[in-house]
Design brief:
This protein has 606 residues and is α+β, with helices and mostly antiparallel strands. Helix content is 22%, strand content 30%. The protein is built from twelve helices and 29 strands. The relative contact order is 0.10.
Length: 606
């Protein structure tokens, strides 16, 4: 199989939340303004015509506001008949005169409403859609759809097979770049299509019993380095995102095409299947211009983007599908425990930086080869957290899936003179000298070992005062187990010198920069003859056990057990302190040749 698929999704928002105040140019907010409606309609017509001119079919996600407009309804019917476009229902685009009068609110994000209101709004939208078209849609979507919404939709409207369900890495980073005013946190989900768990939208389903009944796609295909390190809203396969990030020169957008090609390349790692999506509402193309770009450039960027997909299609390098067509195809070629992986290189700054991303029903993880292959992000999908969000829950706006490691929110290798960030790495010491592999740059290559995914780093040199050691790392993600095998091998003769390998995991939990109370955590280290346990209480206690069979942290707040096993002389855990709250588990081994093999495993805590 060698297939690159694109979903092109247009939503005719007659009252786009992004455009109301920009188009109004200082006028009082008026979601029913005729000039706003007329401009939005013109932009939607332009978007559809541009896609069709390049031989591409679209999915038209009709918004609630658009369902009251006969012109939009008839256009959608026509384009379905003439071009094969799919008529879908979006749960974005709720704000309009009818909605605000009926629900008495300025909220417009479906996952933020109370469960009672979620059901009422979903029923309202689906019923009005049926009234206008005579059938229920096969696809729907929002920036984020929580498990409650997906489960309700699938039970009540079983025709739905596909949904836009999360916006990759739209959490605190995005919040900080919208003046700390827009509370939509949804970090921690997959970057590529997946089948969501019934328990939590972010988690890929474990099996058929856990299958929510839909295929989920992300809201935009993002740059898997730039969006993790910075604001995701600037770097995606959405030409106007690229303009917002000012990633263009002389009105040309080569970065956009490089980004599409980088996604095409991911087929190498995923049995030939690669995917891309464009999801554009009219607010991004308004006549007043956006982000220092005039309308003429906004228009050209969209035309150039559609022309590139059209070119790839004509060359037989791209298949355009509607959302429901893609859902059917995805289910025909994917199994539940098959991972999604991405060895991603920097295509923006020319740094030669690489990240490796891994996602399956047990975890989402990221390795950074600018830090020697250190693990800089880890989400425990195995816990399948029932993380209810919306008004009336514990998480009104925060729909993110919690991390165990997150190098940007909770630092990384080094934070401050007395701090420790969350990271998984190796320390090598000899006498009084100690070097962390996270300080050494390397590159990585991908391979398969049966069903398992293997990442091998280029050899690196660890320089001590009296000798230099060559070290290579091999990381194996064991399919369907929640286990990651880490092998560290000495490649050269270091003579009589003896080194200590300290394979460590410094962890925390949360969804933002701020740590919740950690006193529920238990730290455990045991061997065949000894067992030590500490209830976390910020006392900086360090406990070690010889020839440990297991060292682990039990974290009830995220229903997860993080465990390390494998080669060691000593297993150790370290309790953190309040100034830099984290915990540390590690395995240590002395050697002067050969290597060390350990296993990191995630389990659901009872």
């Amino acid at each position: 199989m060698d297939k690159f698929i694109v979903n092109i999704i247009h939503r005719p928002e007659l009252s786009p939340e992004y455009a109301e105040k920009v188009t109004g140019r200082g006028k009082k907010e008026n979601v029913g303004a005729d000039d706003l409606h007329d401009e939005s309609l013109d932009i939607f017509i332009f978007q559809q015509a541009t896609a069709h001119a390049n031989g591409l079919k679209t999915t038209i996600q009709i918004t609630y506001a658009s369902l009251f407009n006969d012109i939009i309804v008839e256009m959608a019917k026509r384009d379905h008949e003439v071009y094969g476009d799919e008529i879908a229902l979006s749960l974005l685009g709720l704000p309009c005169k009818q909605f605000k009068e009926k629900y008495k609110t300025k909220d417009f994000c479906i996952w933020m409403f109370s469960e009672e209101d979620k059901m009422a709004i979903i029923d309202d939208c689906f019923s009005l859609f049926y009234e206008k078209f005579g059938f229920y849609p096969a696809s729907t979507g929002s920036y984020y759809l929580d498990a409650f919404c997906i489960n309700y939709i699938k039970e009540k409207y079983p025709s739905v097979t596909c949904a836009v369900a999360t916006c990759w890495e739209e959490g605190p980073k995005a919040y900080h770049t919208c003046n700390n005013s827009w509370y939509t946190f949804m970090d921690g989900g997959p970057w590529a299509p997946w089948i969501p768990s019934k328990h939590n939208t972010h988690c890929p389903a474990m099996n058929k019993a856990d299958d929510s009944g839909i295929v989920a796609i992300p809201h935009l295909s993002r740059d898997l380095i730039a969006c993790f390190d910075g604001n995701g809203s600037n770097f995606g396969t959405h030409p106007q995102n690229v303009l917002r990030g000012l990633v263009y020169k002389d009105n040309e957008l080569p970065y956009f095409f490089n980004l599409v090609d980088q996604y095409r390349h991911l087929g190498k790692y995923n049995n030939g299947l690669s995917y891309n999506m464009v999801f554009v509402g009219p607010g991004w193309l308004n006549k007043a211009g956006r982000w220092e770009a005039p309308y003429e450039l906004l228009k050209k960027s969209y035309e150039d983007g559609m022309a590139y997909y059209g070119k790839l299609k004509k060359e037989g390098k791209c298949d355009d599908m509607t959302m429901s067509e893609f859902a059917d195809y995805y289910r025909s070629v994917k199994s539940y425990d098959e991972p999604e992986v991405a060895l991603w290189k920097d295509i923006l700054y020319g740094s030669q930086k690489q990240y490796f991303w891994y996602c399956d029903p047990y975890m989402r993880a990221c390795l950074d080869f600018n830090q020697g292959g250190a693990m800089i992000d880890l989400r425990p999908y195995v816990a399948q957290l029932d993380w209810k969000c919306g008004i009336g829950t514990d998480h009104v706006y925060d729909a993110s899936y919690p991390y165990l490691i997150q190098a940007n929110y909770r630092a990384g290798y080094f934070t401050h003179y007395a701090g420790a960030g969350t990271v998984k790495s190796l320390k090598v010491s000899c006498g009084s000298e100690e070097i962390d592999l996270a300080l050494v740059r390397c590159k990585a290559s991908w391979s398969k070992d049966g069903d398992d995914t293997v990442i091998t780093t280029t050899p690196v040199e660890i320089e001590f005062q009296d000798f230099t050691m060559e070290l290579q790392s091999k990381v194996t993600f064991k399919r369907g187990t929640g286990e990651v095998i880490i092998e560290r091998n000495i490649l050269n003769d270091i003579g009589d010198h003896e080194v200590t390998f300290d394979e460590y995991f410094t962890g925390a939990f949360g969804t933002t920069e701020y740590q919740s109370d950690m006193t529920k955590i238990k730290l455990i280290c045991e061997s065949e003859s000894e067992s030590e346990t500490v209830d976390f209480n910020y006392k900086c206690r360090i406990v070690d056990v010889k020839n440990a069979t297991s060292v682990r942290a039990v974290i009830p707040d995220v229903e997860t057990i993080v465990e390390m096993t494998g080669d060691n002389d000593i297993g150790e855990f370290e309790e953190g302190h309040a100034f830099s709250p984290s915990y540390r588990i590690s395995l240590k081994k002395k050697l002067n040749k050969g290597g060390m093999r350990t296993c990191l495993k995630l389990r659901k805590a009872d």
